[in-house]
TrEMBL record:
Compositionally biased intervals (Low complexity): 44-60
UniProt protein name: Related to transcriptional activator Mut3p
Higher taxonomy: Eukaryota, Fungi, Dikarya, Ascomycota, Pezizomycotina
GO cellular component: nucleus
Location relative to the cell: Nucleus
Keywords: DNA-binding, Nucleus, Transcription, Transcription regulation
Pfam family, one: Fungal_trans
CDD domains on file: fungal_TF_MHR
Length: 537
């Protein structure tokens, strides 16, 4: 027997309506709680007195001032004992930590996404469910299923120094350049400028006698790093060069000691591509170290302050081309930096205080205006130099991520009262909603995704990748922002979770984090066939 379900558009509208109502309760509950703190005799606020933070692009100034005063009064009337930074490490407040009612219950490991509950967390689960879960069995099963990536060691080479400097046949590199230039991969990870890279290849393959110069070592390392990333991405294998990517990465690593003495765009490209190889191979610790090295090379070359950039498609000198490419790698590193900070709790390297984050000219217009490109993996249409790379994420969203870490997950965030934390959550919620409303309807993420989402629109490869990435990033950041409210209102072990003082704003914020996480799973279920394995790291 077949059941008749409501139409998907109807379900989608109902889901958004419920979410909008929940968002409105955040403001209304918070306003009522804080108003009563200022004047207990004042009547309760109307259910429609304020606007939802996630359905209004920007709150009026009067409302912001009013809430600021209410937060201050609320803090005075609700003194809380805040953990000192020394008693709670940075890792305990990073994204992925599990907090409920101010209690730290455990964390979600960034390696595989499996929750690891502390003894306190396991006791809390038992007190609420009455069930003793065999968490140790889950850990043991997970350990058996883990595949350890091979180590990158010089011992794998089993050869002389000449073998270390030996490169694959040049035709393999040329084939890789062709594949890179004519694939959508170039628009997501513009790790090399093909014009500049041709000069690097020429230097790397020039015959030499005697000791290698620093420039030649950097050129060879850059070529090897390039080959290491060409082989880890899926696609049409008839175009991709077939070489051992790990072997190339090992050799490039061995050349690092010579390369880092040459702070140049060639060395930067090599280090960044080695970072890519490591991060997509699951070697996150070594990837973090290479990322730090790439960031500092950018600082040495001035890429963090350079904004006078010629647009793509314009005639440029070699120097202008180098500056443009340097700035592009800066943006790539900036995106990775903010994601890594939120995942690990380690401080970001690139901060707005020290970096010029002026967006490239025409960024917003060009980001969603890619011309009709081929739907195949490799096509000459991707080689058009006037195409602006759209990178692995939205630059404006990356800036909100940086602010999210600073306001909610930094060491300073530990010193904030609950009122200050809720105020910052509301501010970030406003910013991410302003960003969402600025996205064209075709690409705009929905507030919530139902269990049976609409199918992913049939578009060409770059646009479908944008469509998927924007939604996943939006819901992940929403969950990251609102999950921080779980740190509010610590309760003693003797007080029931449901009997403790709870604010409607906090409950709604946690519900939003749950809804965003659920939407991520629903969307992944619908989009999984269109995602490449290397998209996950």
């Amino acid at each position: 027997m077949q059941l008749v379900r409501p139409s998907r558009p109807y379900m989608h509208l109902q889901s958004e309506k419920k979410l909008a109502e929940r968002l409105e309760r955040i403001e209304n509950a918070l306003a009522r709680a804080l108003t009563s703190s200022i004047d207990p005799s004042s009547p309760p606020a109307s259910g429609t007195a304020t606007s939802s933070p996630s359905t209004t692009a920007q709150a009026p100034d009067e409302l912001s001032v009013s809430l600021g005063e209410q937060f201050a009064a609320y803090e005075l009337n609700h003194p809380l004992s805040i953990a000192s930074p020394s008693s709670l490490g940075t890792s305990n407040i990073s994204d992925g930590q599990i907090h409920i009612a101010g209690c730290h219950l455990g964390h979600i490991t960034c390696h595989n996404g499996i929750p690891l509950l502390s003894e306190e967390g396991q006791a809390w689960v038992f007190s609420r469910t009455g069930e003793a879960t065999a968490f140790q069995k889950l850990k043991a099963l997970n350990k058996r299923q883990q595949v350890q990536p091979p180590t990158l060691s010089l011992s794998h080479l089993h050869g002389s120094l000449e073998q270390l400097y030996h490169l694959p046949d040049r035709s393999i590199v040329e084939r890789g350049i062709y594949w890179f230039q004519n694939s959508a991969f170039r628009l997501v990870f513009p790790a090399i400028d093909t014009v500049l890279f041709q000069d690097t290849v020429s230097m790397a393959y020039e015959p030499w006698k005697g000791p290698l110069s620093q420039e030649r070592s950097s050129a060879k390392g850059c070529v090897l790093a390039f080959l290491s990333i060409m082989c880890i991405f899926n696609g049409d294998s008839t175009w991709r060069p077939i070489v051992d990517s790990d072997a190339c990465a090992i050799k490039a690593h061995c050349l690092l000691s010579d390369m880092i003495e040459d702070a140049s765009i060639v060395t930067l490209q090599a280090v960044f591509m080695l970072h890519m190889h490591q991060i997509f191979s699951g070697r996150l610790q070594s990837a973090a170290l290479l990322h730090a090295l790439a960031c500092h090379i950018i600082f040495m070359l001035g890429g963090h302050t350079q904004t006078n950039i010629k647009p793509y498609g314009a005639e440029v000198t070699r120097k202008e081309r180098e500056i443009r490419h340097l700035r592009m790698i800066f943006w790539l590193c900036y995106i990775f930096d903010q994601d890594t900070a939120l995942r690990t709790g380690q401080p970001p390297i690139m901060c707005q205080e020290y970096c010029d984050l002026t967006l490239p000219d025409g960024y917003q217009e060009n980001y969603f205006c890619l011309p009709a490109l081929s739907n195949s993996v490799v096509s000459p249409s991707f080689a058009d130099e006037s195409l602006f790379p759209y990178l692995p994420g939205d630059l404006r969203l990356a800036q909100i991520k940086e602010k999210t870490f600073r306001l909610l997950y930094s060491v300073q965030a530990l010193r904030k009262s609950d009122a200050e934390l809720l105020r910052d959550i509301r501010e970030l919620d406003n910013e991410i909603e302003t960003w969402r409303l600025s996205i064209p309807l075709k690409f705009r993420p929905a507030l919530s995704i139902s269990q049976h989402p609409r199918s992913i629109p049939e578009t060409n490869i770059p646009q479908s990748m944008q469509h998927i990435a924007l939604r996943l990033e939006y819901h992940h950041l929403m969950a990251t922002i609102h999950r921080a409210s779980g740190r509010c209102y610590p309760v003693s072990p003797d007080v029931s979770f449901y009997e403790g003082e709870r604010s409607g704003a906090i409950d709604s914020s946690l519900a939003l984090a749950l809804e965003a996480s659920r939407s991520t799973l629903y969307y992944l279920q619908a989009a999984i066939d269109g995602l490449a394995g290397e998209a996950f790291w």
